[in-house]
């Protein structure tokens, strides 16, 4: 979630999520998002989407509220918001589509050790390609990997050589963490995890302040996953790096009408 090149500093921009679509008049109708703070500019977007957005704006004029500081270790935190009308435009899946909406935060999903391990896995994959701009993605499910100004299917592109990059143990850890995210979403939103299915896209994302070369690099625009993807009922983000320690800028922002609510990833 980077960019906006006006700054000379190398801070990634912030990841903004809009709580409501433009046509709505009522405030704070964000959809559901499970937001999992954890550790690098690598973000796993599991379940139902990931999206990120950062702006390089550093103005202090904005009304900002911090939902979780980097210095805190959050066991579980839930901020309920009215459910968005955006859900009315899509199929309702009983037992899955949220009836209670909000933003859930936790630092208790994975250990630092696991974060480092999964981060190294992502780095090995991204090292095979990478965007010429500031935002690269790696999707282990579809094989999508940023490469220059486009994407390749790494499984097809590299063939058997991929087996030397990721081991079965890597995939096992990935599946295990994915499963934990699923259970955490189910618990936070009061649904059964068996009614929750992984949808796409689901990917690792690495962002820095290199200027965008294509629109795919422009991760910083405010966005609404339910509108962009339709299939997402919940979005989760798992940070693999720490705000203020591993990177500057790059906070996660829920854009509400009266204030921007930020999360400082750790
Ligand atoms: C939230 O941040 C955006 C820019 O990132 C700004 O345009 C908007 O005015 C801010 N909202 C509030 C309520 O301060
Ligand atoms: C961003 O990451 C890419 C890929 O690792 C690297 O080539 C580039 O130099 C980085 N840019 C900055 C400003 O750190």
From TrEMBL:
Listed Basic and acidic residues bias regions: 8-17
Keywords noted in UniProt: Membrane, Transmembrane, Transmembrane helix
Gene3D superfamilies: q2cbj1_9rhob like domain (2.60.120.620)
InterPro entries associated with the record: OGFOD3
Residues passing through the membrane, by range: 34-54
GO cellular component: membrane
Record region (Disordered): 1-26
Name the UniProt record assigns to this protein: 2-oxoglutarate and iron-dependent oxygenase domain-containing protein 3
